[in-house]
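Hi support team,

I submitted a single chain yesterday and got back a structure, but I'm not sure I'm reading the C-alpha cell output correctly. Could someone confirm the output below corresponds to the sequence I sent? I've pasted both exactly as they appear in my results page.

Thanks,
R.
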Amino acid sequence: MSLGAVLATAGMTLLVFGVVRTDQYPWTSPVTVTTLAVAAALLVAFFHVERTTTREPLIRLGLFANRSVVGANAYNLLVGAALASAFYFVSLYLQRVLGTGPALTGLMFLPLALGVVAGSVLAVKLGYRLAPRTLLVVGGLLTATGFAWFGLISPDGAFATDVLGPSIVASVGFGSA
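Hi R., thanks for writing in. Yes, this is the structure output for that exact sequence:
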C-alpha cells in the first residue's frame, strides 16, 4: 500500500468522522475542530505526496489543469450530492408519510438504482453520436425534471405517482450525465 493511499484514506475517514459527530460535539468544540484540522493536515500531506511522487501516483494532479475534467467532476459531484439527498428525504417520505417499513422502502429504491444503470448504458450508446457536453446537459435537465417532480409530492400521495415516476426520470438523467 502506498503512502498516498494511507494518507487519503485516513484524511477522508477523519473528515467524515468529524462531520458526522457534530450532533454530539458542536462545530466549535475542541474535539470537532481538532478532528477536522488533523483531517485537513492529512489531506494536505496526501496532495504533497502525490505532487512529489514520480512513480505511479494515485492521482495525476496535472489532470486538474484540464478545465473540462474539473467541470465535469464538479458537475457530477453536485448532481450526485443532490441525488444522495433525495435518497434521504424520499426514504423519510416513504416511511413516515406513506407508512412503509424499512425493508419495503429499500425495495422501492430499486427502480432508482436500475434507472442509474439504464442511464449509464444509454449514455455509452449515445456517447458515440453526441458530444459529452450534450449528454451532461440532457442528463442534468432530466435529473432536474425528476427533482422538480419530487417537489410536487403530497401528503396524500402514492408510491407510483409521487416516488416511482420522479425516481426513474431523475436516475436515468443522473446515469446519462
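A quick pointer for reading it: Residues 64 and 73 are 10 Å apart (CA to CA). Let us know if anything else looks off.

Best,
Support desk
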